[in-house]
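Suppose you are handed a protein chain with no further information: no name, no annotation, nothing but its sequence. What can you learn? This example shows the usual starting point.
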Amino acid sequence: MDTLDLFLREITYQLGIEWHRIPVVVLATLGIYLSFMILVKIFGSRVLTSMTASDAIIIIMFGAVAGRVIVGNPPTLAAGVIGLTTLMALEAAFGTIRKVVKWTRFLDRRPVLLVFRGKMVEDNLTLAHITKSDIYSAARKAGISRMQDVQIMILEPTGHISVIRVGQTIDPELFKDLVGSEYIEDAKES
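A reasonable first move is to predict its three-dimensional structure. Written in structure tokens, the prediction is:
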């Protein structure tokens, strides 16, 4: 056995991953990343909002499943590092794609109008998988004690819920990318 073979065997042993597993880890990471992106697109930004106990359990379970898929069997430090590096590279690549190619409407969720002039937009609540309880919670967090005091409430693409109080001037241009922007446009015309 020559020195190079011995060196490669020792590196493989120390890193804890066989060379043939590296592309498998990278492909598994790519698959789980794309799956997550598709699931968030399908199920909405609701999965990114502040969590209830059951939401936290689902996210933890998702992380456990994703981690297991990424690092494979047996799980090793090297597979974890390769998986995390691949995730970071994918995130950087998709960030660049978002800037260079105008695919944001396919990659990102649009903000969704949830409440307009104190009234819930029921179709948008269903679309965004947001409950009335989520709306009430967001109003309380914004220091609002009556729904009539909510001029606009929006589910942002990040999963954050923005609340604009009654009495603030609304620039319809700022809200034209919303799902439900027609409510604001119609109000401006009337």
